[in-house]
């Protein structure tokens, strides 16, 4: 008899790889719900209203019923608009067939992985309650369609806990223990955000249109949109008609309350008092034109009601648990799998976790100057004439730049030869791909890994903010702890020790490039003088780009 070898366990990274792996995976319904579902279907006196009520009480069953109904609507090019619509579209015969095909899961009280699967489901029910109430409070007509889309929005988190627990565990560690932004942690560990992966699977599964729209990164409001929303809420008289019209269009979109409800549920599952939660409360208050105190009181009520409707022993939604904490200090590390269970899962059939090793720091040559000179902060240009020449060319309306590349070349020369910054990298913005990639380097070794960097601008990060409006940052010891969690590991793992600067270059309102600069190996610390001159020259480059566009 031949020896059976265990199936190889893949390393998965990137959107397509994960979508291929998860597309055919089954989502089990909890035993009690599936038993009641089959019992209702076997009873001749059961009504569609009873079935609708049961289906709507369980997000996983709702997903299966919606997928089945959506297959029937595919030929008509229409979408399921509510759970009741889905149940009535299918009919009893098809529901009975579906009930026989579904698998079930009874929670193991000793498994944190299974608890987190059911907690993620509870979070989705919480999101659906919040989204539906937002619509109702705004007087919008599509409450049930929004409720369904919001209920299905988080299905990717259910799948991840069941079929990628090692990755989810590492994600939890980075977010809960190290304070890394959730989207950046997902990008680093999965190679994509779970929202983007959910959007891909929603398209493959042909989920309703509103669910797909809500999951799309392209429909997410920018920081400028949210700022305009706030200005409208406070009745800013300087808000122009065009801005007012744009923000009104956003708030009337069906996907907007779906996003808000899920942002709220996924944020408050960690804390109701975090900075991110407080910012979200401000956005919701602007959306509803309510005071923050009154808003939070209502959000708590909706959360408690959602928790009451979905009871699985030991798996109360963390958002509901956190309401009852006596202080704002405690943030439970919910979802960290204990070592014995983690060891068992590591031997299972789940995809292997491959944490990319940080590239070895580039060996820096000894600076030519004496150590005393190296330690002294830079307070003057390396070549003031060269710096002034570059600045004058960039700011002179009569200087004949004909291509953006000429502006960027002048900028790099002024920073390198004029200001004296030793190492520079030009990261070009690829708008169709929403990506940053290194296109040119000065002073960096040819083998330096920064030249291979690819950064997604769809993922919320410091780079995304810099691509939304011209701005610059100096990363030094004073702000590193605060800003590091806002940068992708794909970038920070390629850096050498020391201060560095970043600034975005725009052509009118369109981002063109980001400039990275440091002064290694000569100076590990950058001076305020260097940062001010760096910003001045980069701002001048954006002016020159604007003239080209005109």
UniProtKB/TrEMBL annotation:
The HDOD domain is annotated at: 27-221
Pfam families recorded:
HDOD
Instruction: Please report the organism this UniProt entry assigns to the protein.
Output: Marinobacterium sediminicola
* Superkingdom classification of source: Bacteria
Protein's recorded name: HD-like signal output (HDOD) domain, no enzymatic activity
């Amino acid at each position: 008899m031949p020896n059976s070898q265990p199936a190889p366990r893949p390393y998965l990274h990137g959107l397509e790889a994960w979508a291929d792996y998860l597309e055919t995976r089954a989502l089990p319904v909890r035993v009690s719900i599936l038993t009641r579902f089959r019992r209702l279907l076997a009873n001749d006196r059961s009504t569609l209203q009873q079935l609708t009520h049961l289906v709507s009480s369980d997000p996983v069953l709702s997903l299966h019923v919606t997928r089945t109904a959506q297959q029937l609507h595919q030929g008509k090019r229409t979408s399921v608009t509510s759970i009741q619509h889905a149940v009535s579209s299918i009919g009893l015969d098809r529901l009975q067939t579906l009930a026989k095909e579904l698998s079930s899961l009874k929670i193991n009280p000793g498994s944190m992985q299974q608890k987190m699967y059911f907690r993620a489901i509870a979070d989705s029910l919480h999101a659906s309650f919040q989204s539906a109430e937002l619509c109702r409070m705004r007087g919008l007509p599509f409450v049930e369609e929004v409720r369904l889309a919001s209920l299905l929005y988080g299905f990717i988190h259910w799948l991840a806990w069941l079929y990628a627990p090692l990755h989810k565990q590492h994600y939890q560690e980075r977010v809960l223990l190290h304070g890394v932004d959730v989207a950046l942690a997902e990008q680093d560990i999965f190679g994509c955000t779970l929202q983007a992966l959910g959007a891909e699977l929603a398209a493959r599964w042909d989920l309703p249109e509103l669910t797909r729209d809500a999951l799309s990164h392209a429909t997410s409001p920018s920081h400028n949109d949210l700022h305009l929303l706030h200005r409208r809420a406070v009745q800013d008289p300087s808000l122009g008609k065009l801005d007012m019209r744009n923000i009104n269009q956003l708030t009337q979109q069906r996907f907007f309350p779906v996003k808000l409800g899920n942002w709220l549920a996924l944020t408050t599952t960690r804390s109701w008092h975090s900075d991110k939660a407080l910012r979200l409360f401000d956005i919701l208050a602007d959306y509803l034109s309510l005071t923050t105190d009154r808003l939070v009181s209502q959000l708590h009520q909706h959360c408690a009601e959602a928790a009451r409707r979905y009871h699985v022993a030991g798996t109360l939604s963390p958002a509901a648990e956190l309401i009852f904490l006596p202080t704002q200090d405690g943030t439970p590390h919910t979802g960290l799998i204990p070592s014995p269970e983690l060891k068992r899962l590591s031997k299972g059939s789940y995809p292997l976790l491959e944490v990319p090793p940080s590239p070895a720091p580039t060996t820096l040559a000894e600076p030519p100057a004496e150590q005393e000179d190296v330690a002294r902060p830079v307070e003057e240009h390396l070549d003031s004439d060269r710096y002034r020449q570059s600045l004058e060319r960039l700011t002179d309306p009569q200087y004949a730049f004909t291509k953006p590349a000429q502006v960027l070349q002048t900028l790099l020369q002024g920073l390198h030869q004029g200001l004296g910054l030793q190492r520079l990298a030009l990261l070009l913005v690829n708008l169709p791909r929403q990506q940053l990639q290194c296109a040119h380097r000065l002073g960096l070794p040819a083998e330096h890994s920064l030249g291979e960097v690819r950064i997604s601008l769809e993922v919320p990060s410091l780079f995304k903010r810099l691509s939304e409006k011209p701005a610059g940052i100096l990363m030094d010891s004073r702000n590193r702890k605060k800003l590091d969690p806002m940068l992708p590991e794909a970038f920070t793992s390629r850096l050498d020790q020391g201060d560095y600067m970043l600034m975005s270059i725009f052509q009118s309102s369109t981002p063109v490039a980001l400039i990275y600069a440091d002064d290694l190996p000569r100076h590990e610390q950058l001076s305020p003088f260097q940062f001010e001159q760096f910003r001045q020259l980069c701002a001048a480059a954006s002016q020159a780009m604007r003239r080209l566009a005109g």
